[in-house]
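Lab meeting tomorrow. Please check the following:
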Amino acid sequence: MNQKKQLKISLPIAFEYLINIFMTLVDTIVVSILGTKELGAIGAMTVIINIMQMSIQTINVTNTALVAKELGKKDNEKVKLISGNSLILTIIVSIITILVIICIKPIFPVLFNVDAICNTYLSIRLMGFIPNSIVTVLSGQQRTLGKQGNILVLRILAVISNLILDIAAIRLGYGIEGVAFITIILDTILAIYLLIKSNKTIQYVLNIPILKNIFNLFKWNFVERIVTRVDNFVFNMLVSRMGELEYAVHVILIQIKDIEEAFIQGFGDGITISVGVASGKRQKDYMDKVKQIAKKIITKISIVIPVIVIIIAIIIMQISLRTSELQAIYYQVLPILLIATYVNITATYYFAILRGIRDFRFLAQRNFVSSLIKIIIATILAYTPLGINGVWLSYLVYSVVQKYMSKIQLQNKEKNEEGVTNESHSKI
């Protein structure tokens, strides 16, 4: 393992995640042409869709960690069974999620204080939720097997197609409904392709011991993600009640946050795969080498990514936030987001390794604590003169808490491992 090899794993995943976020960003930017009413509606439903996708992303992360470990052991048959059972669980969870959202969606316009057109957009997106879920899990499986480049190309083609077709839909008068239909059509095409492509690397045979193993990791990963989605829900609800201008700015900032988090997550997932493989090999020297390389890469990108975020933020502002009032609010909050971005990047080293060694229980506990702190601070500061700035300060505090809790956990685990190793040597 060297830096070049790790970058070959991480970079395609990072760019794929980035491009995947652009699918939603393209929808948001194109819809912003219609006005702040439509922008607020799609922004609110993006929060709901992110909550829906959370359980599927949880299965994806669980599948990646387990597949990586078996790759380290070179057990290809078990890799196929894990992937097959993960996909079966994905279909079941997707159906349950759709039914739940159908039951509660009438409350969303009032809850987010947005136009009822938000539910029209959401209803259409629900039709494509199962294909989208299949794409998420099968993309993760293919990446873990080393086919990152192929998945990246697929995502690039999908985003370009989405942009062209979205613009066409708006100009032809299909509005927000046309934008939603285009997204589900593209997701369906990708799902069919990946099902065919991955056919030889998956066994669709229900295996109860493997399914239990997946579920045991899934439940903690689910808790980790659900508390984050809940705090994001509160985060958005607080700002939506500050006014149309504040919420329009908030929607764009959330999209930028999602972009940087997705790119960082991609790097982290690449490291998680390498750590997972190393845990399967059970070679301490190999694991130490993976960690050293990961730290060097994270140090380098912690300088590059904030600069890229600034450039993206300025470009998006010029497209979507044209008035001086909107831009004034935007420039007040942007520095807070940039500082949080740096904290998130430097924290990725700890996050990725803890996922690679499958410490999902701690990650769930960490998210519960940090999200609770974020909600309390955001709620308090939202009703002070700080307003939207106060809400975003809570996000910065949340990022700092997550980083240092994860750092302490990893250090404790490494000390325990060294203690066990020294004890074994003394007995010998």
